[in-house]
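User: Assemble these into one structure.

Assistant: Restating your components, then the assembled model:
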Amino acid sequence: MPSGVHTARFATMTTITQQPRATLPAGFVWLPVELFYRLALPRVRLYATVDQRPEPVLLTSDSRKLVETPREDLPGNDRQRLLVARQDLDPSDKNWLTACRAFASDTKLPAVLRMLAIQTIYGAEFERCWRSKSTSRLVDCACETGPLIARVVTRACVSAHELFANIAHDMSPACHAMNVAAYGMLLAEHLGVSSFAEKSQIATGALLHDLGKRSSAKPGDHHTTLGYIELCRNDKLSRGGLMMIYQHHEWVNGAGEPVAILGDEIHPWAKLLAVVNQFDSLTADDGGRRGLDPVDAIGTLAKRANKQFDLEVLRCWISIF
Amino acid sequence: VLDINLLSSVPSRLWDTAGVVAEPVGAHVAVSFEASEAAMNLRRHRRLPLRGQLLVVTPEVLLGCQATDMSTAGLGFVSPVQLFPLDAIVVVTDQIGKLPLVVRRCRRKDAQSYQCGAEFIDGAKTPTEFRDLVRQFSTTPARP
């Protein structure tokens, strides 16, 4: 079937709305304003983007003074998120993680803001573990973050549009892992996964899916195989989670990597991951390249239905948007 | 259980199909000491094309497999099921007895078979050990 036919069919399945997204200035991360109002966080400098200026403007050099400012008086374009310089965020300071856990567990807060806090603070910790080369630390971090994401990102609390518009989109390992885990939660729920334990395992597997990219590969070694080898003796990961790591680049038509297995042999969680992984890769800003908008990304995915991606899983992902 | 002649207890559809799957090297069981120059340049361990039936024992199942090549580091074979990296297997033949290996690679070859590569669990063989092993393989009788 010509690829254009697939695209046309998918376009009629659902109305895909364009989602605006703010550009994250280089060297900065977003944090929810609410986080600073509610919790005693380590002191950091806070910035905001004002009007059309590309460079963020310093609001205060001491984040603890923020509470003296009424929320409605906050300057900037975005009253829900403030910017923190990436180097000011020290994930080794346990206060950050404790505050983030408390914030993420507060169900009265909007789920997108809770997810944003997880992405930024746990993302910084994930990045630190990623660079440390310690597999056990990275797995521990993923095993703690996965259930948090599974609890926050549920279809009742957040839509795919909201999620897309509010989280960061870059190709750093942590940002990509967090996004894929969050999208994976939404897709898993829509595909009928309801058990919290299973969702936690899917989120953990999604966080670790590119673990093999840290290893120095020999020619012919695929990062999926390297990741599987690193984790297959680790009892903290379920069999499904392991298959997500090993099989997420398999294609349903048998043209994938590393084994080239056919659709029926691919674990359902790996099929799910394949879709959201590709979606996030397409929509992420990579250096100077601006990521695709969701509509264009979905169009690209649709061309690969029944070749790279499982049709039912892809159809479900498109219906979510 | 490990008697290779007890063929009825082994899922052996590959033994019927692998003769077509594997590239022919002449006799049903044959050893060639020639390997292509290009392949040798890329590999640390020289591979010898090899044909012969193997019984592969995994913790779950006994598999009828076809050997494809051998090097001082390990053995290449075609399996009827997918094996995973770091799976511990034991290869059994009449002549060699049990040969413990650990799977390194597995790639689908066609709808019914997977090309697998496995390393010797006790490390690379010395040239003498390797020569003996190849000789033993070459004298393994073919399936009647």
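Chain A is about 50% helix and 5% strand.
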